[in-house]
Amino acid sequence: MDEQKKALVTERMWQRFQMKFVPITPHLCCRLSDLNLGQERVARLVRAIQGNARLKHLELDGNHFGDECLVQIAPSLARLSTLSLCHNNIGPAGVSVLVTTLNTAHSAMTDLDLSDNNIGNEGVRSMCNPLAYNNSLKRLRLARNAIGPDGAQALVHLLQVNNRLEEIDMRGNPIGACGEMIEAMLALPPSERSSIVFDPDALTLTPLRASVPAAAAVTPPAPAPAP
């Protein structure tokens, strides 16, 4: 298919999918993947999302719109339940703004898929502080994002303070043994995570009570000799 025909098909797909956002015929779920969303379409998308109060599930994979467009969209996304943003050239700047918006009082998002982007260690670290205070997100997918051990260790520390997260997908990231630490934290009952001490040098997880040396035994004084 030549570029002209491809552009025509993309425009027709965009027009057809855009109809799902008409407020008088609201939909709970919409897929708008591989539509080459640029600045103009992103602005229209924001207005459409804001006009559909029932929309809960949105897929925007493969649009390659980058951080600048994500910053535009982010404020309108917090009330969604599930959001997929795979293959969108999202980096640290965009993901930081997105996750920060999820801490609003009306945020209802439980599933966020950011696989196949460019988040890296810097992006993960920028996510962790806002996510420490997030009360809704349960599943976070970060597969194939060039995240290394430093980023993975930041996620382990995040799980010590966030007991809502149930799943973190780190497939395809060169994180080594840190992946086992994340899985081990997720396997714990949420109420026990805060009592775990993580040693990033030894890559060990230790219950707090086991990491504190037992108090030295105190020998009671010998009874005074009878007069």
Keywords for this entry:
single chain; 227 residues; alpha/beta; 6-stranded parallel β-sheet; two-stranded antiparallel sheet; 8 strands; globular
Topology (SSEs and partners):
Layout: H1 3-18, E1 29-31, H2 39-50, E2 57-59, H3 66-73, E3 82-84, H4 92-101, E4 111-113, H5 120-131, E5 139-141, H6 149-161, E6 167-169, H7 178-187, E7 196-199, E8 204-207, H8 208-211
Parallel strand pairs: 1-2, 2-3, 3-4, 4-5, 5-6
Antiparallel strand pairs: 7-8
Helix pairs in contact: 3-4, 4-5, 5-6, 6-7
Structural class: alpha/beta
What fraction, in percent, of the residue positions are helical?
Answer: 25-40%
Proportion of residues in extended strands: 5-15%
Count of beta strands = 8
Strand order of the largest sheet: 1-2-3-4-5-6
Tally of alpha and pi helices: 8
General shape: globular
Q: Write down the oligomeric state.
A: single chain
Mean pLDDT: 83
Tell me the span between the first and last alpha carbons: 110 Å
Low-confidence stretches: 5-10, 19-25, 210-224
Most strands sheet? 6 strands, parallel
Rg measurement, Å: 24 Å
Query: Which sequence of SSEs, written as H and E, runs from N to C?
Result: HEHEHEHEHEHEHEEH
